[in-house]
Design goal:
Chain lengths: 115, 226
């Protein structure tokens, strides 16, 4: 199961369509964290950074704080520029810029991490 | 100067976001033929909101030229028109919109076009900040010899610094509550500017479970026909 965390419902649906996988959409980090706390560990998370309430970085910090969540692969999907940032310590396996990403890139990550 | 640049940055970001969504929707056409109608409808919604936001920004410049005449406006008719326009969007986003008119319909002294935008931006903001299990509320009532149009959401509380600015009566610049399309700082800035032009008071009330934005409009001295 893939998680998509994006407060733009339509953008989240686009990512879900492009992934061609079973994916659950969350409009904020708290809802996603609650689902994880309840025992659903996703195979991959597509994460927006600017969110209502806690932002994407707060969410990343939460994930790396626990053994059972720190290895969840994360793909950041944002219109902010993270290209030169090294976020591997946060479990970030990829960065997609909303301005120029294409569905094939989303699908590639989904296929690689959600088998 | 720095504050102006910040404002431009927020506005640019908010206007860029719907373009990124439109681009993804256009790319989605290849992904799934069966949902083309859904995608088409989503594209129309996103682009219409973006156009409206750009138009509102353009109107801010025209405020200085005094091109918007004040006139008696039937507040209920404007609220009905805005809620009709946004009803599809609310349904699409699984949000409810509750409307309550607690006074007989009155005429207010305003400019219809600007007032429409104020209510539109408040409602769009409320839709975005209300979670799926809750609703946004549009309430019109008479209060202290004025008509109060209040839009309540049941989402996260308004950041203190934005509330302080709203308490003062207007926002100096688009504020990065969170930089998203169709909600937050830019819409509130537009609503704030337009209200100020109409000599209407805008403000915000922080609740434990959300925020209310309101505008107080002077009642028109002309006799109401409604």
């Amino acid at each position: 199961m893939i998680f998509i965390i994006d407060d733009d419902q339509i953008m989240a649906e686009c990512i879900k369509r492009a992934s061609k996988k079973d994916a659950k959409i969350f409009s904020n980090a708290i809802e996603a964290m609650t689902e994880i706390s309840n025992g659903t560990i996703p195979s991959l998370i597509f994460l927006d950074i600017l969110l209502d309430g806690p932002d994407g970085f707060t969410f990343l910090n939460e994930l790396v704080s626990y053994d059972d969540t720190k290895k969840i692969p994360i793909v950041i999907v944002s219109s902010l520029d993270f290209k030169d940032k090294n976020l591997a310590d946060y479990g970030v396996v990829g960065v997609l810029n909303k301005d120029d990403m294409v569905p094939e890139e989303i699908k590639k990550y989904a296929e690689e991490y959600d088998r | 100067m720095e504050s102006e640049v910040d404002g431009i940055l927020v506005a640019a970001h908010e206007l860029k976001a719907p373009l990124a969504v439109l681009r993804q929707l256009a790319l989605s056409f290849d992904e799934m033929d069966t949902t083309n109608e859904t995608i088409r409808s989503e594209m129309i919604q996103v682009s219409e909101r973006a156009i409206k936001q750009v138009n509102d920004l353009a109107k801010i410049r025209r405020l200085e030229d005094g091109l918007f005449k004040m006139e008696p406006v039937a507040i209920r008719e404007v609220c009905d028109a805005v809620s009709r326009e946004l009803s599809l969007l609310f349904r699409f986003n699984n949000r409810d919109l509750f409307i309550k008119y607690s006074n007989r319909s009155r005429l207010v002294a305003a400019n219809r076009e600007l007032l429409y935008s104020v209510i539109y931006n408040f409602l769009l903001n409320a839709m975005h900040y209300s979670s799926e299990e809750t609703r946004a509320e549009l309430i019109v009532r008479e209060s202290g010899g004025k008509i109060k149009v209040l839009v309540r959401d049941f989402g996260p509380a308004l950041p203190l610094e934005v509330w302080k600015e709203m308490k003062r009566g207007w926002l100096k610049k688009p504020t990065s509550i969170a930089m998203r399309p169709g909600s937050s700082g830019l819409g509130l800035y537009i609503a704030s500017k337009f209200s100020r032009y109409m000599n209407a008071e805008v403000g915000a009330i922080r609740h434990r479970d959300g925020t209310s934005f309101y505008v107080n409009l002077p009642i028109s001295k002309q006799m109401s026909l409604f």
